[in-house]
Amino acid sequence: METRAPFVVVGAFVIAAIAAVFGFVYWLHNTGGLGPRADYHIQFEGSVPGLLVGAAVLFNGIRVGEVTELGLAPDTPRGVKVTVSVASTTPVRADTKVGLEFQGLTGVPVIALEGGTMVANAGKVPTLVAEPGAGQGMTRAARDALRRVDSVLAENSEPLKDTIANFKVFSEGLARNTAKLDGIVGGLERMTGVTAPPPKITYDLHALQSQGPAAKIIHGRLAIPAPTAVTMLETQRFLFSPPQEFPDFAQAMWADDLPKLVQARLIDSFENYDIMHAPLRMAEPGQSDFQLLIDVRYFRVAAAAKPVAEIGLSARIVDKDGNVAAARLFEENETFDQVRPPEAAAAFNAAFGRIAKDMIAWTVQALP
Question: Among 179, 260, 290, 299, which residue is least crowded by beta carbons within 10 Å?
Fold first, then answer.
């Protein structure tokens, strides 16, 4: 027994030391540090859901103490009395605002103190009164708001029903008198001289139609990415050289930006030539064997004594390694009589059709 006693004493001492360290850390964490403390009583009018002894007390967002006591107010059934212990240097005043905040994802409640200018009476522990609804959580606030909305709707159900019925009658009246309203609006436009702008007239390019069975099929996977062009050509307007404005073209426009329109109609033309080996609109690296790269050089009306629709496209066939297998410049023009949108669109279609036919024949021959 005598040989075992020192071990028992040493073990007990180590356990006591460990317990003392843990107790000191716990006390230091929950009291917010060393130093003189001051106690204050807080009166809550209503519930304080989730508030526990040891909960943090914040002053202007900084932790200054903790809750030391919770209890019900015997004289006020809805009241809750809370005692907090904070650092004595905390500038708590008689008019300091008190609230309950919910922090973190779990909504841990803490007491929040803020502001105050009045000087508290010396030697007396003041009772701070929390703001009305200070302990109200977001869920309860939402329920109360919905309850109030529901009560308002219930009290005004008949006026709301009459208002909806009046709207229905008004909308039905508008529907029955649409023609008259159009006439009134038209009369106002004529009287004031203000008219709605005329609608835009859209023109499109025509893809080359099938010429019968393909003489030579398209070998390999071919892609035709979006053509490149200078910024001036990325437009739906008809372009003129030299640049000038024609009133007849103010409301005329192409169906899409010129590079996208050229790409779409070239792909349609290749599909009409060999639908079984139609080119891709775009391809990821390694997805296609060849790419037909198009650059739109010009797509304009040469406004001379006899207007001319001019198209210039440069084309390169590039393999998957980036090597240029073939390159060519395609240029076509078509003369027309009057500088008007329908005649200009027809001339562009004729010129584009010849370019598409030549480009298909050249691509099929250039592909291995």
Answer: 179
Tell me the C-alpha to C-alpha distance, in Å, between residue 286 and each of 6, 72, 194, 317, 321: 80, 76, 58, 15, 9
Q: Does the residue 212 lie in any domain?
A: yes
Confidence band, pLDDT 50/70/90 cuts, at residue 235: very high
DSSP state of 233: G
| CA–CA dist 184, 198 (Å, integer) | 19
Instruction: Write down the pLDDT at residue 305.
Output: 83
Q: Examine the domain organization and report whether 216 and 341 are in the same domain.
A: yes
Classify burial at 205, counting beta carbons within 10 Å of its beta carbon; exposed 0-12, middle 13-18, buried 19 or more. Answer: buried
DSSP strands (E only) in 122-219:
127-129, 201-203
Last residue of a domain, one of 80, 114, 135: 135
Q: Residue 177: inside a domain, yes or no?
A: no
* Strand-pair category, 290-302 with 240-241: parallel
Phi-psi region of 107 (alpha: psi -120 to 50; beta: other; left: phi over 0): left
Name residue 213's amino acid. P
Residue 304, sorted as left (phi over 0), alpha (psi -120 to 50) or beta, turns out to be beta
Number of domains in the chain: 2
Tokens found for residue 359:
């480009």
CB atoms within 10 A of CB 337: 9
Asked whether the predicted pLDDT for residue 141 surpasses 80, the reply is: no
Amino acid identity, position 108: V
- Helix, strand or coil for residue 15? helix
Q: Which domain holds residue 353?
A: 201-366
What pLDDT score was predicted for residue 136? 59
Chain length of the chain? 368
State pLDDT tens for residues 69-87: 888 877 777 788 888 888 8
- Token pair 């001036």: residue: 232
Q: Which of 307, 330, 299 is nearest to 237 (CA)?
A: 299
